[in-house]
Amino acid sequence: MRRLPLLAAAILVLATTAQAGIYKWVDENGQVHYGERPPPGSDYSSVAPPPPPATDTGTGQERIEKTREFLETSRKAREKAKQDAEKARAEAERRRKNCEAARRNLEILTYTTGRRRIYGPDGTPRKMTEDERELRMARARQQIDKYCDKK
Asked: Is residue 68 part of a domain?
């Protein structure tokens, strides 16, 4: 309870110092002085404090617009980077699958002996010739070179 009057007095002192004005007076030598307290026994006048600097709303609006443009550009760049990363991931997956298929085809053509059947345009099965086998093996090697990463 004793603190309340102390707090009220402190607030009152701070409020009066915040309200302190600016005074102007001329001394005996003709020099102009400014201060928070006028000298006793001399003529003085109260001076209004200068107004705060005007803010240029156009500059503020320009800054806001530039910030908006920057944020929009950044958002679009992030979106494009995300799409590019997704495309790259899909392309890598496609290449991996094609590589596996080409390696499997080459392995089948290389190591299986005996009956190698292919189907003709009319759907009838026939035996693959050695030239056809070599051609398909060459195609499989080309696909391996194209789709498989060299390590």
From this structure: yes
Q: Which domain holds residue 140?
A: 60-147
Let me know if residue 114 belongs to a domain: yes
Total domain count for the chain? 1
**CB burial of residue 79 (10 Å; 0-12, 13-18, 19+):** exposed
Could you tell me if residue 116 is inside a domain? yes
Strand, helix or coil for residue 109: helix
How is 57-80 classified by DSSP, letter by letter?
HHHHHHHHHHHHHHHHHHHHHHHH
Report residue 12 as tokens.
Answer: 């009152």
Query: Tens digit of pLDDT for each residue in 62-114?
Result: 889 999 999 999 999 999 999 999 999 999 999 999 999 999 999 988 888 76
pTM: 0.49
The number of residues in the chain equals: 151
- Token pair 């085809």: residue: 105
